[in-house]
Amino acid sequence: MNFSPTVISTGVCTCASCGVGAAWKAAAEADSEALQKLSLFDSPRYGDRLVGTAKGFNIKSNPVRCGGILMNALDEALAKIDAKKLRSKRAGVFFGTSIGGIFETENAIISNFGKDCGGLRALSFYECSTLAEFVAKRTGAAGPCMAFSTACSSSSLALAAACNAIEQGWLDAAVVCGADSLSRITLNGFGSLLLLSKGKSKPFDACRDGINLGEAAGVMILCPRHCAEEFGAVPLAEISGWGCSADAYHPTAPLPSGEGAAYAMQKTLRKAGIDCGEISFYLSHGTGTAGNDSAEISALKKVFPNAIPPFSSIKGIFGHTLGASGILNAIIAVKALEKSEIPACAGFEKRDSALGAEPVRKTFQKNLNSILTTSLGFGGNNSCAIVSRSLDECRKIVGRRRLFVFGGGALTPSASGSDIFDRECQNVEGSGKADISSLLKGIPMLKKRKWARLQQIGLQSAMSALDGVDVSCDARDVAVCIGTGLGMVSETARFVESTIAHRESEPLPTAFTNSVHNAVSSLISLRFGFKALNSAVTAKEISFECALWQVWCEINSGEAAAAVVGACDEYSDYAQMFLRSKRPEYLNRHPMRDFGAAYFVGEKSSCRSEPFAEILGIDLARREKNDSREIGAIENFLSGCGSASGKIDALIAPSAFSSKASSLISNMSAAMGNLETLMLDDFCGANYSASALSILAARHKFGRGCYLLYSPASTGMRGASIFRIL
């Protein structure tokens, strides 16, 4: 059977005059008329800037503007296939977004500014995984459901993760989507970095002066080639290659030499098994900023030393759609293959002699076979894909490699390492916030002051995980993936509150650059020089399991040999209010606290040190409604990993946040021979990332043996992992 990730349907909801499903027409005509003055909200400072505002979609289809745009694109994609086939645990959702439903959260803060925030439901829309859940519920997909938030490369990373899942036989279908809407934080954030164009964006032009922001959503449905007929679909194209890398250079600026982006392109070509000369067209990230366009051209010259293929950017048409831009690029590439047409670069007029290359000036016909597309995000986060016509060769299933744990580290506000297990969380007095002055010994205070609290928690956890580990693989082959439920919520709140209170007159550029979810993973890559995949994944209570799953897939693919993987979340007043409104009794028993944990994992050959644990299996799926059926599903999972419930030494769970979850965990323990159960929130408090403590907890509390981590999520999902302490 052919496990090539095959595109069987797409859907797009874009801005203004383009409307729903009209993206290709606008791209082919290089139509920039959709960019208009901001009208969605009042902006004293940037109200005259041109943006791409979505219109013509059913705004009532979702309580979140970003979700409404997304649902319209999703409905278009679902209408083209037998969507009932998606109602399976073999179908997953991979969603990319820069900042999710932040627009509604901003509105709630504005309406209650200076008072207790009453619009608590709107706070949940800030959680990027909420939008992924909307897609899962609409489609019925019951397999893995996760969101990727790596700024402008978000949906491109989602596409790469979905392709790995299909090629490795985890899934029979994947709904890959990306969406972002306009918001005050992105407008003022990019404004504070002096990256907003004063007119229309001009990618690669000598007079380029920045970006126009836009909002859009794109959906691409994938399946292995041999499954396409089951969906009643004619394959549109194949994702023949994909690859990710990190610059490890700067929190926002790209590496000027383009080396990091070039590395991602080269990995993508290698994955596709094609030569650079076989690329017919390059669809660029092409933002229209001086630094980004220059670095991207430098990368192209490295990858295509003889001649750069025809290239273009669509951001002069739709604006920079942030987390949606990667999937939008991929969909336009599919359309270009279908139409045998290369779209012009809207906004380009004057050649920049310093670049030494210019994009396509006029749309023209050409027989296309393979298109390379690139997305570049904050933190030097690079992700590429090659979209091809159907290939003749058969892509076989990629086998799964053994995954070992070589080092680990964790911290709470009151303890770190094994000290965390000396006393239970509810017996610890004091604030839920970590004393960051005691972290990162040996790093100058002046440097630490640039990093937010959660960044320092994540970096400290990673440093502890690497302490004493003798890494033998190249830093270019080490990935970083950090799970988080809430991301950089304190920095986000600080920026939004300042913007509102001072009516955009006092920008906080550092708070903006630190507000992105991948600020932690980018800092770890930057500190250690790790240059493989760099990712931030969010799925509420199972964010760690999703991060571990993504890392394992990347290692299976051969694109990384090892990884720093973990999860961290921080205490914040907004999060405390929101969680207390939902579960007051639980929060009384388990105070909310800062928490972070990280591990260094990899193949046996990636370290000269001896591992202390091995990951045997991970299963991500929607919970069965009946406890006995759910327990049966977990027993089947254990059996598939070569274990039986009778061989499990203890059951570990991050929390029992509801009576239903508590009952399920108790019933599971009883069904598996009255397993001893360890609740992680007893040691790290109420925290979406609590499950990341599991491997260290098993090591320190029990020692050698085989353990089941079972994490029920408030979304209806669950993560199950089995690991052995050696």
Q: Name the beta content range.
A: 15-25%
N- and C-termini, Cα separation = 37 Å
> Roughly how much helix do the residues carry, as a percent range?
25-40%
Shape: globular
- What is the structural class? alpha/beta
Radius of gyration: 24 Å
Number of strand elements: 24
In the predicted model, the low-confidence regions spanning at least 5 consecutive residues are none
Q: Tally the helices: what do you get?
A: 23
The profile of the biggest β sheet is: 20 strands, mixed
The average pLDDT value, as a whole number, equals 92
Descriptive account of the structure:
The chain is of the alpha/beta class and 726 residues long. It has a 20-stranded mixed beta sheet, sandwiched between helices. The radius of gyration is 24 Å and the shape is globular. The two termini are 37 Å apart. The mean pLDDT is 92.
